[in-house]
Amino acid sequence: MIGRLDGAAAAVDVPAYVAALRALPQCAPGAIGVTGYCMGARLATRSPHRGLSHARAAFVYGHADEDAGMDAEAQSRLDAALVEAGVRHTTAVYPGARHGFTMADTGAYDAQAAQRHYAELEALLRDTLERP
């Protein structure tokens, strides 16, 4: 099932997600922030190596250095694509962290890496979404 969930299939749901967010009383009009982890990051970014030239977003990526699914070579390709697209971005590698390091209910949880990542993400969202 996950294999069939590509960017095009996920994009079909985006208008409903945006409408649901806009309908919440605690959400102010304006920009929307999106987060994603693992496959969710790919879907949130939607094919970064092909779509970054059209992006208007700022990006923050936190990579586990012990993640075979996003090894150093893949991280370098992503960094190069971000630079080439000229988008504002931050990427970081968390030493000793494994895939899933932000999930407190798993054995992969790394409190130090997760706290660092959440602080970097919160700073980006605050800076980006709270602009006048």
Strand residue percentage = 5-15%
Q: Count of DSSP E strands?
A: 2
Report the CATH topology name. Rossmann fold
**SSE order:** HHHHEHEH
CATH architecture: 3-Layer(aba) Sandwich
Ends distance: 41 Å
CATH superfamily: Alpha/Beta hydrolase fold, catalytic domain
Question: What class do helices, strands and sheet pairing give?
Answer: alpha+beta
Mean pLDDT: 85
| DSSP helix fraction | 40-55%
- Side by side, the strands of the main sheet go 1-2
Q: Rg to the nearest angstrom? A: 15 Å
Sheet with most strands: 2 strands, parallel
Shape: globular
So what's the CATH class?
Alpha Beta
Helical segment tally?
A: 6
The domain count comes to 1
Compose a concise summary of this entry:
With about 130 residues, this protein is an alpha+beta fold.
Summary keywords:
Rossmann fold; 45% helix; 6 helices; 132 residues; alpha+beta
Sequence-ordered SSE layout with sheet pairings:
Layout: H1 7-11, H2 14-23, H3 39-45, H4 48-51, E1 59-66, H5 72-85, E2 89-98, H6 111-129
Parallel strand pairs: 1-2
